[in-house]
Amino acid sequence: MNTHRTLFSPRRIGWILVGCVLGFALGGTGSAAQQVTALVGARIWDGTGAEAISNGLMLVRDGRITYVGERGDVPVPSGAAVVNLNGRTIIPGLINTHGHVGSVGGSGRENLIAQLRLYAEYGVTTVNSLGGEGPAAVALRDEQSMTGLDRARVFVAGAVVTGNTVDAALAIVQRNADMDVDWMKLRVDDNLGSSQKMSPQIYSAVIDRSHELGLRLASHMFYLSDAKALLRAGTDFLAHSIRDMDVDQEFLGMLAASGICYTPTMTREISTYVYESRPDFFDDPFFLSHFDQAEQERFQESRQASSARAQPYKEALRVALRNVKAIVDAGLPVVMGTDTGPAGRHQGYFEHMELDLMAEAGLTPEQVLLSATGLAAECLRIDDEIGTLRPNRWADFIVLTENPLDDIRNARSIESVWIAGEALR
Ligand SMILES: [Zn+2]
Prior knowledge:
The chain is α/β, with parallel strands linked by helices. Helices cover 39% and strands 17% of the residues. It has a single domain, classed as Alpha-Beta Barrel (TIM Barrel), CATH 3.20.20.140. It is globular.
């Protein structure tokens, strides 16, 4: 509902018109804009759950996919720019349903672009940023229906809704709505008994008002009892794992009836204690391709002491792993989310760690990939635009040298990342 409002808002159509006019002015006849790119010979896994095409052809024009199928079924248009991808695998760009931009380094435009670029370098081509964004993030959200995008797409929730009274909370809801956010976000958590939880009276009022404004609401929660209460109150997304106990049949029934999605964000637990000693990933070339080792080591030393207080999150992770498996086995939608962005939760790299954890929980590589592509797009209601490799969607995809359907760790074998039909440079 709000996604369509967002994608086709007057402001966005304005940007599209500006883009068209500029394209015409700069391109003359527009021949460059009409150029077809033909990606030939790759295995193509389209993110719908269909079996991969072993020797595929994908055609892209003006940033969008126009054809996906077996090579040889249709001719490659004359004049197309042909990219030979024999032996490679193409999957849709990854969608993180719960990340953050601007948590570190400020909410300014340049910082946000750098963070979205970092996500993109790791193949995360869309980030649903659930809280803490300001107008610069909203502006970037409004500037992404175009070709030439060299960063991840972003959707925003604005200020996390807080407050000790209904009125105070609803004032934040209104400010977010006035800023034209995609989501509302609230937290129902006592941080292992160290802080006050938002009351049911307040969160119910916030959820109701969000719905009146045509906006969906994502809930941070920890306890099974709160997840059930939030489902009863009408939450539209469970934005973390249930981590205090195993989910029960009542919860699974409620989640099924709600039709909403659940995101595990298990790397969030890892981040609370992993810096108690030197993490293995500090020596991982995939991590070091974008992060500085010395800087990370200094950060780790500064974090070491605080991780002692985070020991209960080790058990919370074990519970979370069991719950992911139980929810997927019940046929309910689990989507990839990480809560990256705050210090120590590394954008881009932790998304791959999250995929590994989902596999560790017992999901097949295909289930893990679906959670980060087609299913994630459906949950965010952006599946008409991205998430699968089908005609009319933006051509956001990753070219891999190894097949991630064999082993999810092969999602790291990134040869190139494409957004709106162009490879990142
Ligand atoms: Zn978060």
